[in-house]
Specification:
It contains 13 helices and 6 strands. It is of the alpha+beta class and 288 residues long. The chain folds into 2 domains: 163 residues, Hypothetical protein af1432 (Orthogonal Bundle), CATH 1.10.3210.10; 115 residues, Beta Polymerase, domain 2. The protein is elongated, with a radius of gyration of 23 Å.
Amino acid sequence: MYFEELKKELEIELAPKLYRHSVGTMEEAEKLALSYGCDTEKAKIGGLLHDCGKSRCPDNLKHAKKSAELAIVKYDVKDMDIINAIMYHTTGRVNMTLLEKIIFTADKIEPGRNYEGVEEIRKAAYLNIDDAIIKSLESTIEYVKKRNLELNIESVNTLNYLRGGKMTLVEKNIETILKACDNKKAYNFVVLDVSKSSSITDYFIICSGNNEKQTAAIADEVIEKGALEGIDFYYKEGFETGRWILLETDDIIVHIFHKDEREIYDLESLWYDNNSLDVEQYGIKNWK
């Protein structure tokens, strides 16, 4: 199907506002493609069709898959680079291609977009497209959290992947420890930044297990996975009882509690005036 015919078909398929957004995304995608040396024709087609299924499936997340399907069966797009760019334009994914990044970003910054923070994302888009995606995902995730909506794990994983090269060493260590705890089904995570009120450490990581066997398994996993990342826990205490296990490294103290012991000591309440980190930004589904 020729490009102009594609536009005519899409104009029939979509409501006027959505069609204007699609054309705006197409034009923005072409500019980004020129800026980053990507195939402009692919960028234009991906931008134009990225929401082609939204009138049939208005769900904010599911419409991307529907649009990818429709691009194949109705608009005869066979190039999987374009199909994948349409498929992941709402959430992103780990290790996105340049075309996927361009369609994702163009959708968020096309001229018709007007929301808090969009100008900052627009500026970043032509300087470092990864930074633009990070800012966009951070904004989306914050919006979702404020409204107590369910976080999309694909978006969280994309954000963490892109942040990987931008994390400080202590942030990477926090991520390693949290994921190790999560591997052994720890729950009720609290991460506190105590750097301004403690002279012995910068962060507390607190979590719970249901019994002594589980708390020991969590601690062993943290030590094992930490060693692989160069984390040295030079102080360890509490393995004998498994009621409250302490693991200490240079910047972090890990508190692994038996659930009953956690209620007795209520450690986080003693440090309530310190900032807490959101563990879900590390891809951890927190539950109590």
